Amino acid sequence: KLVLEEYFYGTHRNHMHPIQSVTKSVVSILMGIAVEKDFIKNVDQPILDFFPEITPANHNADKRAITIEHLLMMAAGLQCRDSYRYGWRGIFEMRQSSDWIQFMLDLPMAEAPGTRFEYCNGASFLLSAILQKATGIKTLEFAEEHLFSYLGITDLRWPANPQGITIGWGEMWLKPRDMAKIGYMMLKGGSWKSKQIVSHNWVKESTRAHIKAGGYQYGYQWWRGKTIANNQIIDAFWAWGHGGQFIFVLPELDLVVV
User: Fold this and answer.
1) Which end of the chain has the lower number of beta carbons within 10 A, N or C?
2) CA torsion sign, 66 to 40 to 96 to 222?
3) CA angle, corner 130, sides to 57 and 141, nearest 5?
4) What are the pLDDT digits (tens) for 98-131?
5) Count of CB atoms within 10 A of residue 149's CB?
6) CA–CA distance, 198 with 191 (Å, rounded to integer)
7) Distance from the Cα of residue 146 to its chain's centroid
């Protein structure tokens, strides 16, 4: 049931918006689908297994230990300096490189994987690269086949980098109603119109707290924390994109807000 819908500044219901890092939460859903469909064994797989053709610089035991889960929870341990805290410096450097995967895998290690939350756009890019390696198709095509087609999402943009890898950290454009569909599917444990799109177990695992992230907690490319409604403390999880892009899911209120 749609409770409220309102648009501002010349936008309208069919206006597509750049959802920025909300894209990361979509990539998390796709990773859950890929694991469930056996394209990927599990999130404990070391990421270097997917790129045997690449010999990374600064290669050591810590780098070999980085798993898909470490990327999902933004704790790869790489010396990644590409968030707003660093003026997105690392993104500009990666864009100037001839091979974005090589660039990311060449980064020195700052600490052992799993030690600390460090927001890293390149980690989400590597998740997209792993999805493409594992499935044999672009992440966008995988999303269209296994997620968007079921949700009736047909109007979107999601570009690839010069090497043809869908940009996993952002740059997706969606309509707010389609963002709401994604949130509603997550609210209903991965189900949409009686079809299980992504497993209930993945929804639980990806939206639970895995690591402390500033004043919040972080799951698998989903944020979580608490808010107050009717003088009660309630849990929430959300997708969060730069500049105020959000999909909030509040299960206790049976509510999705975009």
Assistant:
1) N
2) negative
3) 140
4) 999 999 999 999 999 999 999 999 999 999 999 9
5) 12
6) 7
7) 16
CA distances from 60 to 111, 120, 155 (A): 11, 20, 44
H or E element that contains 127: helix 121-135
pLDDT tens profile 132-160: 999 999 999 999 999 999 999 999 999 99
Q: Give the H/E segment covering residue 183.
A: helix 176-187
CA distances from 103 to 38, 56, 83, 106, 126 (A): 28, 9, 16, 5, 10
- Beta-sheet pairing, 216-218 with 255-257: unpaired
DSSP codes of every residue in 210-234 = -EEETTEEE-SS-EEEEEEETTEEE
CA-based nearest residue to 125, from 162, 87, 179, 173: 162
User: What distance in Å separates the CA atoms of residue 4 and residue 11, rounded to the nearest whole number?
Assistant: 16
Q: With 90 as the cut, is the pLDDT of residue 230 above it? A: no
179 in Cβ contact with 156 (< 8 Å) = no
Give pTM, 2 decimals. 0.97
d(CA 67, CA 138): 21
